[in-house]
Amino acid sequence: MACGFGHGYFGIQERSRGRKVVLISVWDPTMGDDAKKVPLEQRVEILDQDPDVEVKRVGGEGTGGQSFLPYDWKSGETCGFLIRCKVEGEMSAYSGHFYFPTTKSWKHLVTFRTRTGGDRLAGLYSFVEDFRRDIKSATETRRAAFRVMAGSTTTSGSRCSPPASPHRALPPKPKKRSTPAKPIATSTSRPAATRNEAPH
Predict the structure, then answer these.
(1) 44 domain-assigned
(2) Range with the lowest mean pLDDT among 27-41, 130-144, 168-182?
(3) Lowest-confidence range among 54-63, 136-145, 155-164?
């Protein structure tokens, strides 16, 4: 995971049968691991979702909203990850943007909102995950190089300074949503959402 924060994480994964994805997860404010038991009003809401992104409920390591964009990333290539946080009272909205090194372009993937008590973007971290969790994988070397992007979060949104090449241009801020927020209802649902106007 390249961009972990206090209420979620954002990165790339290789899942079963070699399926590679860009992943963003944001946690519910409740305790527990059973996603179906979380009251609707306490669930992560989806404010915006790109049509190429799958969104579902997640449990087992806490509960929340999770999204996947299929992307066949390659070892050795430099990808970019940008999280924007906008605080509105007790709620924080997290917008995830991914930088494609092949097209040198940013794509807004999803915006999740959760009850945080007004937390801003903090508690940043990165890690290399042993997703296979088999005996063999523990004997293999896995490496990742992380470079931090400068930025800050305010109650009116995020301000970020452009990092060094190849990420020369940052994406525009997501436009205001035209549809009301929707809690993610079940573990397999894909709620309707508006397409973001950020360049793809």
Answers:
(1) yes
(2) 168-182
(3) 155-164
Q: Which domain holds residue 87?
A: 8-183
From the list 166, 167, 165, 44, the residue with the least C-alpha distance to 97 is 167
197 within domain boundaries: no
pTM of the model: 0.73
Q: What is the pLDDT of residues 3-24, one digit of tens each?
A: 889 999 999 988 878 889 999 9
Query: How many domains does the chain divide into?
Result: 1
Chain-centre distance for alpha carbon 195: 17
Please report whether residue 20 resides in a domain: yes
Spatial CB neighbours of 85, under 8 Å, sequence gap ≥ 6: 5, 92, 93, 94, 95, 120, 121, 153, 157, 158
